[in-house]
Amino acid sequence: MRKIILSFLGVLFIVLSVLVAKKLIANKHKPKPVKEKVVKTVFTDTVKNGTVPIVIPANGSLVAKRRVELYAEVQGVFKSSKKLFKPGQKYRKGELLISMNAEEYYASVQSAKSNLYNTIAAIMPDLRLDFPDVYQKWQDYLQGFDLSKTTPQLPKMSSEKENFFITGRGIVSSYYNVKNLEQRLSKYKISAPFSGVLTQALVTEGSLIRVGQKLGEFIDPSVYEMEVALSKRYASLLKEGEDVVLQNLNKTETYQGVVSRVNGSVNATTQTITAYIEVKDEALKEGLYLEARLNAKEETNAVEVDRNLLLEGDQIFVVRDTILDVIPVKPVYFSETKVVLKSIPNGEIVLKKAVPGAYAGMLVRPFKNVKKASK
């Protein structure tokens, strides 16, 4: 019985060994699975050369084109007027901005004018006897002399003798002394040189104003200028009268400006050139920060692409029969995100977006082909 069991187990072991051997032999000759090759889908664009405007970005703050810093040339107490001397107050051209108490100085001016009048009146008898031909014009001058008004100009001397006589009596020197006092008296009042608004007020009514003290700032809010510094390589491109588009930082408001002036020299330290952009708009305020886009020139027979598509050595990828290739190009202008290229043949298919890990000879599938296949 024992021999029968051992014989059965031996036969079973042999059969299992044969089956395992056959399976191993079958697996050895089975072909390995082929890994499917991945083909990247790319976005492409067909080149169509044309005229590309070269736009130079710049930014800066607005400053009123006409502005006046108010300073005192005389000393006195600030008198009250119809309008409060406060920031934001509007004035018309010629309207009184500041008035200082000048009663004491006014009295000295009137005294000098009175002395001039008396001096001329004292020589009238001598003029009647020695210069009867000029007596009447000096008589008319005295009759038109009004102490409450500005001193009129002296009559024109008709002869050398008359000139010596009048000058010898000190009349000419007295006249110019009076005119000098009147000129200084006018400085006790400051009028608006143009219609505008007060942006800074450093004195208040009743305060003592001293000579040389700054009183405030006055601007014309109708016209503003923005100073921008540009690279010297744009010096030959900038022209006066060029239109400029300006936007605020949020890109929500757009304004139209024009290049009013271009500095004729380059800053030796920064190697930049300064341009001034004039802009008019009721919504603008001084100090507002804007971004400008200056139309410097137009590049013909060129195309604009994303800057990250340009490879080292001035080359870009093109798609030829689903395979990437590279061609040389000529960049003519760089902006922050774009580059203007020349020397690309019309009809060439280029990448529209950069492909990570791309190389010449890489197999790709243009996105437009995928769209057609899905229809």
TrEMBL record:
Q: Which residues form the Multidrug resistance protein MdtA-like barrel-sandwich hybrid domain?
A: 67-215
- Cellular-component GO terms for this entry: efflux pump complex
Single Gene Ontology MF annotation: efflux transmembrane transporter activity
This protein's name: HlyD family efflux transporter periplasmic adaptor subunit
